[in-house]
Specification:
The protein is built from 2 helices and no strands. With 64 residues, it is mainly alpha-helical.
Length: 64
């Protein structure tokens, strides 16, 4: 029915918006942590870690 479709569309919209807001908050927290500490993970470290994905002995995620 049209009512069900509207309700479903609104629910899906709200779920997407909540997910986007969680991502935004996480990004802001990470940025604040970077500004406070200056710690980073180099591109090379991330690239080396990603190359282990799918391998029998997958590497651990690099942390600053």
């Amino acid at each position: 029915s049209p009512h069900w479709l509207m309700k479903e569309a609104i629910q899906q919209f709200l779920e997407r918006e909540e997910d986007a807001e969680h991502l935004r908050q996480d990004t802001l927290e990470r940025w604040a942590r970077f500004e406070a500490t200056g710690e980073t993970v180099s591109h090379e470290e991330v690239e080396a870690w990603l190359e282990t994905w799918g391998a029998e002995r997958e590497g651990k995620c690099p942390v600053p």
